[in-house]
Amino acid sequence: MTSTAWRGVEADTREAARHPVVRTSARIGLAARGVLYMVVAVLALCIAFGDAREAADKNGALLAVARQPFGEGLLAALAVGFAGYCIWMLVRVVVVDDDASAKTWAKRVAYLFRASVYGVLAWSAFETIRRAASAAKKNGNRQQQEWTARVLGWPGGRVLVAVVGAALVIGGASFVYRAVTEKWRERLDLEGISASTRRLVRVVAWAGWLGRGTVFGLIGVFIARAGWQFDAKEAVGLDGALRRVVHGTWGPFLLCVLAFGLFAFGCYSMIEARFRRVTET
């Protein structure tokens, strides 16, 4: 694609990004993300208190929703929300523009990754409805281990797995950095709200970003170690990372703290759904 054609696509996409449908899709998607994190947090608490029947990951969360009264309707709403979030991320891939070209492309890769994750979540939610909650029964850790074993068999696969793990650790560290520096403030429009509400938003944001960053870092460490030790069984997803925490010293207490952080991030997502400047990159 020529630079002129790309500029035309970018201009059209920027115009589309300001359309009320896209803005509404973004807010619905943020709310759906919040619900997902809250359900995962509840499942993590179940593990902390000895109930290991449910997987504390995104697939387990979808199954948990499916089993509730009006579960299919709730799943359909989540699927729409995830699809809306995916569309919003795809729009941002095109419209993002930073002073440094390297940073622009880094953001594009991140947005494209998020779009793929939430696109898969939307599809998984619809599949869970269609197959009466049987589509998500495959354990998330087994999926992670199968993926890791397959990649380890590629030429240079060991390095690639370690790089993916390192990238997740770096991503987790960036979330912690966002909490400490309060960079999340730049994306929220908090004008007109009371001082007490601002303080509440700050507490929720701190807890949420710290909790999310810690969990991402744990998953990254396990995946990187799998690449380093050439052992796919070391690779675990969200559910496996939380279960390993619960078996350590002060495990149940620490897992409750992580669950609180995940729940806080779900609440923060709800705050973003209301106050996020969704037209900004």
In short:
By secondary structure, the chain is mainly α.
Model description:
With 281 residues, the protein is mostly helical. About 2% of the residues have low confidence.
Q: What is the 3D shape?
A: globular
Specify the number of helices: 10
SS-based class: mainly alpha
β-strand number? 0
Which sequence of SSEs, written as H and E, runs from N to C? HHHHHHHHHH
Share of helix, binned: over 70%
> How big is the Rg?
19 Å
* Beta-strand percentage range: under 5%
Mean pLDDT over the residues = 78
Largest sheet, described in full? Answer: none
Residue runs with pLDDT of under 50 for 5 or more positions: 132-137
* Intertermini distance: 23 Å
Identify the notable features of this structure and list them briefly.
281 residues, mainly alpha, 10 helices, 77% helix, 0% strand
Write the layout of secondary structure elements.
Elements: H1 3-17, H2 20-48, H3 58-66, H4 71-95, H5 101-130, H6 140-152, H7 157-181, H8 195-229, H9 238-246, H10 251-275
